[in-house]
């Protein structure tokens, strides 16, 4: 079992799914944590759970990373708390399975901000701290198996994840030998809230390769600590990502629709959910504005 006492991880998207399971696993290995997402109540519950179970120091801070101000505000918040982060986990993300032309622009802009720009900005801002002192430090960026091919109806989301994969692998090369490793996690379908928010309906083939968030998180963290550059979860996904190399891209796009199916008719109220939580009013599910919103409220 890895010993991460005297380390601190910053985990984005820790209020549910893979990020929450990563936080649980890291805490079990003795790692102190700064956890962030928009839903403050969820973060507070998780912080209390992990401190009670493992005696680690966990600080929760709400932040909207779909806002252009989010990453800077989160960075300032961590600096103000005097936290020395040496494990940066850029996990927060979302995407809607819908025809490009049916998505409101604000939704697409938020998808790109959250999945790409915020991830890159956080990496850029924290990198000097990760490198400080020549110690061992880790970046884990969460992409998707969608990074390996064009995915119709996930056009922006899949392209964003391709960006994350290419960015991470290039940065891993740049940082080789510095003590900072960069790992890109490419999960396949994983049972989390992502499935509800994305509006996907799973067919037989897609269901067959689904994994649980706990095993995905554990596999990703172990690979990160080993300094692996890319991790694809699940043997069916490993195989399909490998075979995609030999398939014309047009055929790859066709096959992803064959597996994922056509999207349900557009539901603007679902698509707007991700934007609305960035507004100032706390939602019914306890989401609230963080340092990245106009009405920032940090700890
Ligand atoms: N589940 C899958 O099948 C799958 C497959 C491939 C890749 N992935 C990737 O895995 C990562 C984790 O997703 P998941 O499956 O664990 O989904 P999830 O359960 O929906 O978790 C997403 C996390 O991101 C946070 N988040 C969403 N929008 C945010 C915003 N604007 N600002 C800050 N935080 C935000 C959410 O918290 P709040 O809502 O509280 O803000 C939540 O903690 C994502 O990058 C996703 O793209 C998932």
Beta-sheet strand percentage?
Answer: 5-15%
Radius of gyration: 18 Å
Overall mean pLDDT: 90
Structural class: alpha/beta
Characterize the biggest β-sheet: 7 strands, parallel
Q: List all distinct small molecules, including ions and cofactors, that are bound in this structure.
A: NADP nicotinamide-adenine-dinucleotide phosphate
What is the level-2 CATH architecture name? 3-Layer(aba) Sandwich
Would you identify the CATH H-level superfamily?
NAD(P)-binding Rossmann-like Domain
Q: Flag low-confidence runs.
A: 277-299
Number of strands: 9
Please give the count of helices. Answer: 12
Number of domains: 1
How far is the N terminus from the C terminus? 33 Å
Tell me what the structure shows:
This protein has 299 residues and is of the alpha/beta class. The chain has one domain: NAD(P)-binding Rossmann-like Domain (Rossmann fold, 3-Layer(aba) Sandwich). It has twelve helices and nine strands. Helix 1 runs parallel beside helix 2, helix 1 (17-28) crosses helix 8 and helix 4 (105-131) packs parallel to helix 5. It is globular. The two termini are 33 Å apart. NADP nicotinamide-adenine-dinucleotide phosphate binds at residues 13-19, 37-39, 63-66, 91-94, 114, 142, 144, 187, 189-190, 192-194, 197, 213, 287. Residues 13-19, 37-39, 63-66, 91-94, 114, 142, 144, 187, 189-190, 192-194, 197, 213, 287 line the site of NADP nicotinamide-adenine-dinucleotide phosphate.
